Amino acid sequence: ELTVLGKAQEFFQICDLEGKGFVTRQDMQRLHPELPLSLEELEKVFVTLDADGNGSLTPTEFITGFSQFLLEQIALKNDVVQPSEGETACLVRYEETMSGDEDEEFQFSNLMDRLGATKVLDDETDVKQLWLQLRKEEPHLLSNFEEFLVRIFSQLQEADNEKNELECALKKKIAAYDQEIQHLYEEMEQQIKKEKEQFLLKDTERFQSHSQELECKLLSKEQELEQLVQKQKRLEHQCTQLLSGKEETKVENTKLKLTNQELLRDLERTSHELSLAQQQLQVLQEEASRLHEEKEMEVYRVTETLQREKSGLLKQLDFLR
């Protein structure tokens, strides 16, 4: 079953050469050279494995279903070639007459030599164990297993030959590529050398021209420097004069600073007095407002009293009349 599972995985890789991760109906046709099945039979196998009917098989669907298909085919073949009781008895008697392990080792070695397994396999232990197990427990499957090994090692040998051919072709391409690279490298070196010589020639001419320009600039800078020295001397003279006048200005500034401080103190005192005066004025205004209100109330009371008296006098006058 492990061998069949491995073969199913190999068949999936054959179908999915592009590495899509799934297998279509057209991909399934690639197994025609690998299996004794017609294209129509492969189509039927694909339809059987495509249980969900989406037209593609995932790795799990393909490997699981195809492994089961291979096991069923092997079981059917075993039923067809099942040996008779007499053949089985002869086989048992023949095995009993063999020399045991030494003969098994010889037969297995002879089988591996015929298959050319030493060129393909580094370790034959797993194959040997499976071969011995089938020989002891399922001898009727041994011929099928050996046929399977023949096909497998034949394919592996073909793959190894193809790999060797590809390696040879790759080595030739690499050699040609290296030769072409070497040729390009030599041409590039010649081109670089030529351009370097031209650059050095141009650079020398440019250096001479640049040197003359620098000499002219240097002469101009020296003249500017002389002018700056003269200007500095004039500025130093002016600075000396300014320093002498600066002392007088400093004394005057000191006096002005003292005067300014006195004025600031007077301003602060005046501001304080003005603030007190504003507060007093506000108090007086509030007092005047209060007196005015009291006066208005008093006038209102007097007026109302006079009005009442006037009304009483009018009534008395009417009474007297």
Automatic annotation (TrEMBL):
Q: Does the keyword section mention Transcription?
A: no
Record flagged with keyword Metal-binding: yes
Which SMART domains does the protein's record reference? EFh (SM00054)
Domain EF-hand positions: 37-72
Stretches assigned to coiled coil? 149-294
Q: Which domain of life is it from?
A: Eukaryota
Which molecular function terms from Gene Ontology are attached?
Answer: calcium ion binding
Q: Which UniProt keywords apply?
A: Calcium, Coiled coil, Metal-binding
Name of protein: EFC4B protein
